[in-house]
Recover the amino acids of this structure.
């Protein structure tokens, strides 16, 4: 009845996050990004909203649709949201060596996203815009090693958030079923 499989399954993110070299690479690049995180975040979200039309509906305070192909962005809300996400990304970078703390933080973020209607399959759609921003920021210093490290980091973030989102959806479904039985 829309609640998925009645059989209980365990969903858990990968136990380890990244290799030590990947962690070091992500932290070093984040040190560069952090100095211009608003500009970086705005670039990511402008790119994301331009290329992923179906996610615009998730940002009603941010995006005003002017027709099928045209939209405008509330710049103040865009900067606010971009900074919020960049601050969260910075916290995730800080927690890279403490996987339990990182998983806990990403669980909270995943639950929040689930509660505002973000579906778990939408999470990876942000990565191409993030990689484009890294490529633009780093120029020739954006190499395959950096790309792989950031992709592993992003994949881990998405994996943890998806786990939380799926659990939250199951919990909401259980509550809905309980209320129907009463």
């Amino acid at each position: 009845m829309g609640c998925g499989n009645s059989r209980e399954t365990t969903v858990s993110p990968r136990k380890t996050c990244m290799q030590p070299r990947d962690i070091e690479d992500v932290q070093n690049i984040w040190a560069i990004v952090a100095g211009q995180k608003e500009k970086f975040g705005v670039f990511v979200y402008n790119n994301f909203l331009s290329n992923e039309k179906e996610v615009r509906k998730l940002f009603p305070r941010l995006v005003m649709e002017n027709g099928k192909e045209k939209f405008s962005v509330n710049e103040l809300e865009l900067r606010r949201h971009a900074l919020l996400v960049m601050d969260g990304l910075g916290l995730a970078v800080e927690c890279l060596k403490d996987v339990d703390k990182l998983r806990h933080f990403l669980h909270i973020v995943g639950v929040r996203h689930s509660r505002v209607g973000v579906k778990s399959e939408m999470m990876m759609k942000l990565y191409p815009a993030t990689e484009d921003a890294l490529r633009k920021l780093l120029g020739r210093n954006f190499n395959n090693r950096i790309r792989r490290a950031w992709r592993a980091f992003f994949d881990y973030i998405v994996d943890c958030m998806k786990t939380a989102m799926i659990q939250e959806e199951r919990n909401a479904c259980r509550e809905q079923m309980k209320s129907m039985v009463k």
Summary: Residues 144-181 form the longest helix (38 residues). The two ends are 17 Å apart (CA to CA). Residues 20-181 form a domain with the Globin-like fold (CATH 1.10.490.10). Helices lie at 20-34, 37-51, 75-94, 99-115, 127-138, 144-181.
